[in-house]
Amino acid sequence: MSSVYIRQPIVSVLGHVDHGKTSLLDFIRGSSVVLREAGAITQHIGATEVPIDAIYQLCGGLLSGKKFTVPGLLFIDTPGHHAFTTLRARGGSLADLAVLVVDVQEGFRPQTHESLTILKQYRTPFVVAANKIDAISGWQKSSETGSRRVEIQPPATRSIFEEKVYDLIGVFFDNGFDSDLYYNITDFRRNVAIVPISAKTGEGVPELLMVLVGLAQRFLEDRLSIESGPGMGTILEVKEDVGLGTTIDAIIYNGVVRKDDTIVVGTDDEPVVTNIRALLKPRPLDEIRDPRERFESVDEVHAACGIKISAPGLDRAVPGAPIRVVSDDLQRIVDDIKKQSRINIELDEDGIMIKADTIGSLEALIKEARDKGVHVRRAEIGNVSKRDIIEADAAADPLNKVIFAFNVKILPEAKDELTGREVVVFNEDVIYTIMEKYEEWLERKKQELEKKRREEYVHPGMIRFLPQYVFRVSHPAIIGVRVLAGRIKTGMKLMREDGKIIGTIRGIQSENKSLEEALQGEEVAISIDGVTVGRQIKGDDILFTDIPESDAKKLREMNVLTADEKDVLNKIIEIKRKENKFWGI
Question: Using CB atoms within 10 A of its CB, is residue 582 exposed (0-12), middle (13-18) or buried (19+)?
């Protein structure tokens, strides 16, 4: 029979590159060297377990007199939003808590914004680690805690620190969060706690652990109560390991997994049913330096933990997909896994294509795209292939010939296929950067398309015949004109103010150079077929481009004309309506 117990919360560490995510976990792991007793910190695949005994020792007097039922903290140590979005359970995030690491000097950077967006999306409680306090000018390392550590700093240093924290609080407020330094907070449900730390010196790390374990104990106990029944987990990575073949690194969040268990693993198609050959854990931290034996085989593991699983047929497994131990009804479990592995998003009939490395990051990118009003026609896990390029190029709308490629490769044959095609691939490992580059491209592309579209229609133009410039009277007439508004192009017909068509512009010249068009303010010579100066036209006449009715309607709908061009178009419509009062409606 299965029994209920409280597991340690799974804590994901997010933040911008170089802000100290790995350094923080390295400092916590490094503490195990001095914690040789029963509560030593242990390393799992993709995770670092800090038992409650180790937290008591690390926190010292901070936790004196306090007892917790939470058995410790399990940090996901594949840092970044990538791991966070990969770890999914039934459409939500597997992480119970998160630490958002921010360089206190640099503040918010692209991946910080992205991490915050993902935390909001998954509604995950989080704590802010304001890292690198030791890098603040004049900072003095201290064993003091909380506000006391700040109070003993030189006045100028304290002032810089307070300014930087105030900036952080402002950015969180702009993003819909109330936040403050943890020692000023009375209600942790309403306020995000900011814990100043140095992953380098260790200052503030005990307070960070204290806040995390306190939040878990107070607010997450129901969520952390699990059964010791058949194991459930999520695939973190799929790897090729020498001597083992394809293996999966997984986080087990519920139940027990044993060697020889039958498991069902999610893929992007039919789930795989297979038997576990080996459960592998890294050796203890002080032994892992010996590369000859990197892993030890274990008979069983209990949630929550990270584990490497060796089994046949894992090559089709995908990161972010679920893994379940088979207990009774195999078909029910297979159907459940298939449902969970499916991308739960309704796709659009037209739109762009998205490729990503995991189910979670695919969902995060789709949400970000949708929030910006971008339609998504296809979304898949995997590298960008030749087929993807051909399919994207087949889109009718040039603005949809786009692929967002997050944390994946463009395969060599796909790169070859890109040559000569209109497809644009935004290949980045930061969602924020993909969206930023896409929006810049979109603006340029719209302007380019608008320019092309404008060229498809006869545009309004108004010119004055300059009487002092008559170069030929007829066959063709060549005269000097000033473009008063709009534009004129070769091939356009001209009409007088009374609506009479007088001929077609055969050529435009300026300083002996032939031009395709002349714009407002320019003075040019034009040749006109079918007209004689002094008969159909004379000096100072105002002439207009003759616009087909369908073009006039389109130009009004498209809203691409300048104010002056609109004015000329209205004059042309007025002239035309003298003969047909419904013209242009």
Answer: exposed
User: Cis bond leading into 405, ω under 30°?
Assistant: no
Report in angstroms the alpha-carbon separations of 500 from 271, 459, 494, 544, 575: 75, 18, 9, 10, 10
Least confident span in 86-95, 150-159, 478-487: 86-95
Of the two residues 42 and 20, the one the predictor is more confident about is 20
* b/e per residue 505-534 (b: at least 16 CB within 10 A): beebbeeeeebebbebebebbbbbebbebe
Select the CATH number that applies to the domain covering 364-455 from these four: 3.30.1360.120, 1.20.1250.20, 3.30.1360.30, 3.40.50.10050: 3.40.50.10050
pLDDT digits (tens, 9 = 90+) for 389-434: 999 999 999 999 999 999 899 999 999 999 989 999 999 988 888 9
Per annotation, catalytic residue among 81, 113, 302, 375: 81
Q: Average model confidence (pLDDT) for the chain?
A: 88
Burial of 200 (0-12, 13-18, 19+ CB in 10 A): middle
Amino acid at 484: L
The reply to whether the predicted model has a pTM over 0.85 is no
Query: Using CB atoms within 10 A of its CB, is residue 540 exposed (0-12), middle (13-18) or buried (19+)?
Result: exposed
253, 213, 201: which is closest to 230 by C-alpha?
Answer: 253
Order of all β-strands in the sheet with 97-103: 42-44, 47-51, 72-76, 10-15, 97-103, 126-131, 191-196, 178-181
CB 278 within 8 A of CB 334: no
Higher pLDDT, 505 or 222: 505
pLDDT at 95: 87
| Residue 158 φ then ψ, to 5° | -60, -40
- pLDDT above 90 for 521: yes
3-state secondary structure of 106: coil
Tell me, yes or no, if 81 is annotated catalytic.
yes
Asked if 573 contacts 541 with a C-beta cutoff of 8 angstroms, the reply is no
- Per-residue confidence at 448, pLDDT binned at 50, 70, 90? confident
CATH class for the domain made up of 4-225: alpha beta
250, 265 Cβ separation under 8 angstroms: no
Quick one: tokens of 379?
């979304």
Question: What whole-number distance in Å separates Cα of residue 515 and Cα of residue 217?
Answer: 77
Q: Does 228-341 match 461-576 in CATH topology?
A: yes
- Those residues whose C-beta lies under 8 Å from the C-beta of residue 445, and which sit 6 or more positions away, are 398, 399
Q: What's 34-60 look like in SS3? A: CCCCCCCCEEECCEEEEEHHHHHHHHH
